Amino acid sequence: MPHATKILAVDDREENLTALAAVLDSLPVDVVTVTSGRDALRELLREEFALILLDVVMPDMDGFETAGHIKSRARTRDVPIIFLTAAGSAGDQAFRGYEAGAVDYLTKPFDPWLLRAKVSVFLELHRRDLQVRRQAAVLREAISDGVGEAASDRVLKSLHDGVTLIEDDLAELRAHAAGAAALDRIEGHVAELRATLDTLAEGG
């Protein structure tokens, strides 16, 4: 699938990774699987991921330590993490997971429907984030090129409509109360873009 949105799944057991990939097969996503925290960090240097599904209990480097490294890097600190925890220790691991920067957690054996639902929300957030970045790039290019007045009006109108749609969709996602940190980040980008558009529309 060319240019597919990517999810990174991290688990030291191959059978768990196979199960995750099978459950997510119906979603428009490319599931990249690795069996250790170190391999996960290497993949994150090479590719951009919409979400990380991270097992807590792994040899050598566990999920908490891996998450700490992910959150300490500027390139990866904003990638949302869902921890995969064992049923018997879900409470303690969930608390530590949130402290480590996780946005959510799932208990093994996980419910396929719940997993797909949670992943779908973060895929949508990632798509909106990309839209905001593209809109911002178009705006910067238009300002840099000093486009003519008529062209400038068309660019501003197109950007204004695009930002309005994104704002409406983000409000709908916010109503589901999922991925609060990711939503806050995207809404901040949208607010900055909206302020710039309003300033330009007013002629200054």
UniProtKB/TrEMBL annotation:
Keywords of the record: Phosphoprotein
4-aspartylphosphate carried by residues: 55
Signal peptide start-end: none
Alphabetical list of PROSITE patterns matching this protein: RESPONSE_REGULATORY
InterPro entries: Bact_response_regulator, CheY-like_superfamily, Sig_transdc_resp-reg_receiver
Pfam families the UniProt entry points to: Response_reg (PF00072)
Residue intervals of the Response regulatory domain: 6-123
Residue ranges of the TM segments: none
Record-given protein name: Response regulator
